[in-house]
Every structure is written in C-alpha cells, then in structure tokens.
Design a protein that fits this description.
This protein starts with a helix and ends with a helix. By secondary structure, it is mainly alpha-helical. The chain is flat. The longest helix has about 35 residues. About 90% of the residues lie in helices and about 0% in strands. The chain has two domains: about 45 residues, no CATH class; about 35 residues.
Length: about 80
C-alpha cells in the first residue's frame, strides 16, 4: 500500500520533470526562432501574434472603461453629493 507522502512525492517529481521538459522545449524553440530571424524568416504566424495583441487591447479597453465610469461616479458624488 502506497502512503500519501509517497504519492505526494511522486507527483512533485513528475511536476518537476514536466517543468524541466517544458523549459527545455521553450529554450530550443527560442534558439530556433532566433536563427530563423537572422535569416529573415520566422516560424510564428502573424495571426498568432496579432491575436495576442488583440487580447491585450481588449483588457486595456475594459480597464479604461471601468476607470472612466468610476471617475464619473466620483465626480458626480463630489459635485452633487
């Protein structure tokens, strides 16, 4: 029978191994991307890059709208409250 501690240690080892593999793959991809960029080519799709910027733009737009609404509420409270 396997104890909880052994199961926990095994899961911890597996997660460390997975993280190590992910870091290695990321490093290799970065190295490959740099080599291709020196040649003037790339593996990244333009759509993927633009999608990331669109997500950031949406978050920033929401933040601006929320802050402006809060500002309006504070100004109305300050002048008429």
């Amino acid at each position: 029978m396997v104890s909880r501690k052994e199961i926990k240690n095994q899961k911890r080892k597996e997660s460390k191994e997975n993280a190590k593999v992910l870091r290695k793959n990321k490093k290799e991809n970065r190295k490959k991307e740099r080599q291709l960029s020196k040649q003037g080519r790339t593996t990244k799709k333009r759509l993927d890059e633009m999608e990331r910027y669109r997500k950031t733009e949406k978050v920033l737009t929401r933040a601006i709208v929320i802050v402006s609404l809060l500002l309006i509420i504070v100004l109305v409270y300050a002048f008429y409250g």
